[in-house]
Each structure stands twice: as structure tokens, then as C-alpha cells.
Amino acid sequence: MNKIELLAPAGSMDSLYAAVQCGADAVYLGGNKFSARAYASNFDNENMKKAVEYCHIYEVKIYVTINTLMKERELKEALEYAKFLYSIGVDALIIQDTALAVLIKEVLPDFELHASTQMTVHNGEGASLLKDNGFKRIVLSRELSLNEIKYISQDLNIETEIFVHGALCVCYSGQCLMSSLIGGRSGNRGRCAQPCRLPYTIVDNISGKEKKGYLLSPKDICTIENIKDIIESGTTSLKIEGRMKRPEYVAAVVSSYRKAIDSILKGSDVDIENENKKLLQLFNREGFSKAYFFGNVGKDMMAYNFPKNTGIMLGKVQKDLSIVLQEDLSIRDGIRNGEKGFTVSKIIQDGNEVFEAAKGSKIKLKPVDFKSGNILYKTSDVKLLSSMESIYKNPFGKKVDLDLKVKFKLNEPINLITTYRGRKYSVEGELVQEALKKPLDKDKLKEHLKKSGSTPFRVANVQFDDFQEGFMPISSINESRRKLIEAIENELLKVNRNKGIKISKKEKAFLKPIPKYMICVNMVEQMKAAFENEFCDVVVDVFYKKSDIKDQMIKENNVWLKVPNIIKEEFPAVCSKIEKLLPYIKGIVTANLGIVNKFKEKTVIIGDYKLNIFNPISTQFYNNLLDVICISVELNKSEMLSLARNSKMPCQVMVYGKVENMVSEYCVVGSTFGNKGVVQNCNRACEKGTFYLKDRMGAHFTVNTDKYCRCHIYNSVPTNLIDNIDELEKAGINNYRIDFIDETYDEVNNVLKCVKQKEWIGDFSKFTRGHYKRGVE
Hints:
It holds the Pfam family Peptidase_U32. This is Peptidase U32. Residues 376-492 form the Peptidase U32 collagenase domain. By secondary structure, the chain is α/β, with parallel strands linked by helices. The protein has four domains: 5-170 and 218-292, Alpha-Beta Barrel (TIM Barrel), CATH 3.20.20.70; 312-392, Elongation Factor Tu (Ef-tu), domain 3 (Beta Barrel), CATH 2.40.30.10; 401-492, no CATH class; 517-664 and 718-757, Aldolase class I (TIM Barrel, Alpha-Beta Barrel). The chain is built from 22 helices and 39 strands. The strands form seven sheets. The chain has an eight-stranded parallel barrel with strand order 1-2-3-4-5-6-7-11, surrounded by seven helices. An eight-stranded parallel β-barrel has the order 27-28-29-30-31-32-33-39. The longest helix has 19 residues, at 247-265.
């Protein structure tokens, strides 16, 4: 079985120490800028260099995340930062923005690039496209099953990385605009406000029925019981999420997965049940899930009742306020009672105050922040955390054994020789002198040669090739040993890279007329209103589950086809449908990299706004792949104009429509109203009503499903830039998208009449200009 990489998070230097000391093969971390975890401690340049040196001495790889979307003005700084990372020996960059891929391949062509999970790679064709365009590794979407991972990793021979433990986003990474549109904090820029962890109500418009809870809050992933199956999928790297977590968490999770992986690779024994229990004590939200590795299990992967750390059940409070412990308990352990928490200050057992009590004991606690009938949960274990703290507090606790050969001969320099990783190292020190009094014996010499101090190396065995009784100052012995270890470290830290090689780019010419207005619809009545208003470039979405647009209508009306941004196991069926319709359509609109790769030579492709095109250089990546780009809805006016002005590819702006905030494999309708779970399907609940999510502020978010049971959540109000069309035209943008989701015939008709006049007529209070004025930071 091939060696597999255990990849650990490092949000701080202590977390880095914890990861390496507990057995990580690689770590990933962010710098002060351009990291998708902007609120982690992250690393300044000085600490980044220290981190690289520390990891490389232990032969642990280090990957740096520059995985945010970048504004045009940031690209120069980002490239300079990439050059710095390259110069200090960082092993690879994890990136999202295709502009950075273009720039790095021009300036630093041998710098290894990993495609961030923010690039939403979830099918084989998409993975192949990025591999063919310079990415060494693909961090796959968390939504894939083991069979899909196996197909991409083994059948297509693509190096992949998958998340095996930690927080799970409810939306496909890179496709979430919820935080951005609600509060201006963009997940694509590392500033997600986690609206998925807030309470919502799902409402059926038709019946009036509703369900409440933390309906978008998934449980964390834990796959420690499934490591053998995961390794056999052929993936290269098992990734632990958690750059925002404390170092004790990193130490414990890495050590547990190290044991589990080694038990498979080396045939050693490990108590998986005990490791799983330890992981539950560290952090869990109503238990763990397996993500989508073994299928979509609906409500069973969600934490509807509590979005934070649930802990493990400690016991039920009795009438006399005593508790029979279901777990061991110590003073300073953390306790949760409902949504409140406290730290244990006293444990009273049999009338006596004790420091700790064992499972099964009947005890009383202080403070008494609970009442009879409450169920208490232990959320932190001070003994576990203390044991983990001791690991990262000693960053050189893990030692690499060296075998040493020594020549200690009178009137000759002391000679130390070792072989490490197939390379021979030899150091000569001072002359061995005749002893005026007591000579230095072998045991004393061995004792000093074995002192390794603050280094990762330890002299385990000393063999004397030649030994004569003599004398040498202890300081000289220590200096010889230090020089030998420094020689090894210097070799490990050597950075030898070629820089400055430039590559050329080819440009794809747009051969067909560019439509000024594209009207996207999913129902016949919407399509009818578009044609009646004399808009000829209509984009039809026939993959919406309730769409009543038939293939024959497409063939008769010469429309564009909107293809889902997410396509997994149904990829062959979708491709087959597109192939049948190709002779009758003008082209396709999509942000699915797999579809782009499959049809780039067959038809006109317009890149949808979920490709997250943020700057003009990003468009260069798609020169030979796309014909038009619908630019990101997160840009403000000046950023849009600059992108369009500096792009060599035609750009389109969405001027009307409800933006898709989220797309998820998990269906909130099927899992609540349909009760979908491990043992039950959804009973097609989404077809029996029309639904919206209501947040704490009373905003209504339209919820639709597609024909492959994915859930799409749209912004509560449409973006409306119709009044700004003249302004955009004067600035040089001449291509526009108008999207209709759940609008009626009359609503579509009214909007399109306003589009023709380039002026909104009526009340604007039910609309937003989105980021047109403000943008995102």
C-alpha cells in the first residue's frame, strides 16, 4: 500500500509544533494576507521562514495558502509574496484565484501549485482541466463519495487531497455568497461570518407548515474509523481542517489519525474506539458525520439543535442535584448545560472534596449552574488538554536517531561520521591530546556525544572505529557534535531553485457575435415573456426540478442552455443531453470546469458568475476555454469597470436577479419536510410545495432544488442594476445578464420593460444594488 500524506493545519507556531511532533507528514498554513482563514493568527514573514526551516528539518512538507480571490490592485503584492515563499523553500502554494496561477506559471514555473477546495473541483473533467493547466494537486470538494474520489485519483491518475476531519461547510466551497451578500464579509476573501451556524425556519409557502432549528449547520467530519477505505481510494493526502483551532486540538487530532494510518500501513494495533472518544471530547457538533463519503444522509449529518461544541454526555442532574458520572471528571473540566457553560471548580464525592472522580461515581459539582433534570455535557477535558500542551511546548521532543562512528586517536582530530537519508556526513574537530591526569574514557565520551539539546536529532548508537585514551575539553566534543548536526540541517534546508523563466500564452478569439442581453429563465411563462419583449438571447435552465421547458421548445427557439455549476455522478447523462441539443443551441452558460473542459472545442461557452472572476488576469487562464466571462457579483462598480477594460475577453455583468447564495448536496427541504436520513429517502418533499428559509431578521431566502436533488438557496431580494446600465455602457461594459428564478410572467414582463428603457419604474425597496457601491474587503 502506498505511503499516504497526513496533512495538518497550523494557525500558529504552537499548532505547527503540535502537528509536526504528533506525526504530520505535511502542514498547511497562511500568511498575514491572502489566506481563506483571515481571522487565524497566521504567520508573518519571519515566522514563516522559521516554520519552513522547522518543518524541513523534520522532513515535513509545508504548503502555504494564498487561497482568496484577489482584487486587481492586490496581484502585484501577492506575486511578490509568492516569490518570497518560493525563495525560502515553501513546498507548494494552495490557491483559488486563477490570476495567481497565470502569474506564478510565468515567473515561477517550477513552484508547485495545489488547487484549493475553493475552486469547487468535484468531477473528473474539472480535475483534468486543472491538471492540464499546471496544477500538481487538486483539493477535492468535500461532497464527493469514495467511489468518485477513487475514479479521479486512480482511474484518471490525478494527485488529490481530501478532508477527513473537521468542520464541514453546508455549501460547496467557493460557491457560497451568503456571508458576502448578507453582511459584506466574503467567504471567498477569507472573512466568512458563518451564517450557516445561525438558526433558520424553513417554510412551505403552500401549506404554511414550518420547521425550525440550525438547519444549515452540519456536524463535523470524523473518518478515523474509515481510514482503510479512504487510503484504498488512491488519494494522496488526508487533510485535517482546523487552522482556527487551538494547538491542543491539532496535537490530539493529528496523533489519533497518525495512529489510525500507521495501523493500516504498518499493521500495528490501535484502539479506534478510544481514539474516536478522544476526538469527541475535543470538539463535536451533536456527534460526527462521514460527510458524503458513503452517500448523502440528509438530516443525520446535521446539527439542528446546537451549532457549537456539544461535548459528550456527563450525566443527568438528580433531584438532590447530584450526578452519576457517565465519564471521568476533573476539576477545571468544561461543562455545558444547554447553551450555557461553566468550568468545574469543586467535585464533592461522599462528602469529601476530590480533584477527580471516575465514571460511575455519584458526585456533586460547583458552581451549581444547573437544576434538577438538566443533562450536562463535558466539553473539555483538562487532563487531555494538558497532555497535548506538553507536546507542543517541547518542539524538539520527537527525535530522529543517528548512528555515529567515532575516531578518537591521539594527536589526530576527533572524527565523527554518520549517514542520514543515504548521505554521508563527516566532521573533524580538535586534536586529541595526551592526558596529563585522568584520560577521557569511552563511556564519558559517549555521554557527551549523545547530548542533542534543542535539535530534532539524537545520537542513538556510538561505534568507535579507533579509540586511544586521551583528553579533549568537553566544549570541544560538544562543538564537534553540533557541527555534525548543523551539516545535516544545512543540507535539509538547502534551497536550490531556478527562477525567472517566462512562458507564453495563447489567446482564443471570439468568433461569434456577443449577445448584449442574456435572459436566464427556468419556466415556460418566463421564456414567453422574454420572447414577447423581443429578447432573442434566452438562456434556459432545464435542470431546475420544476422546469416545464421541454427539449422540443429548445430545438424550436434557438436558445442558450444553462448547465449546472455542480455535476457529479450524473456527469455522463448531462453531457449526453448537451450533445443531443448542440445542433439547436447557441451555446452554454456554466461555471462547471468539467463541462468547460468537455465542450470547449464544440460550442460557445459563457462562464457563469460562480467562476468568481475577480480581476483581469484571471480571465487569461480561460483564454482557450471560454468565450465570455460573467464577472463576480462581489465586485463594486470601479472594480467591474477596471476588469472589463483590462480583460482581453468579453465581460458580462449581472444587472438583475436573485444571486445564488448557496448550492448544497444536502437538501434542507428533503431533510426537514421529507425527513431524509440514513434509513429514509426524502419522499420528493420538494415537489409538494414551494419553500423559503427565514432568518432571525425575517428575511426570506428562496429555496429550489434541481433534478439531481441539490439544494439552491437564493438571496432574499434580487440585485437590480437596471438604472445603472447607461452608466456601465458609457464605461465600456456592453453585455448584461438578467436572471429569473421564481418570478411570475407579469414580474418578468415588468422587469424586461424596464431593461429596455434602462430605467427602473416603481418601488425599489424590495431590491438591492448588491456590491455595486460597496464591494467586499
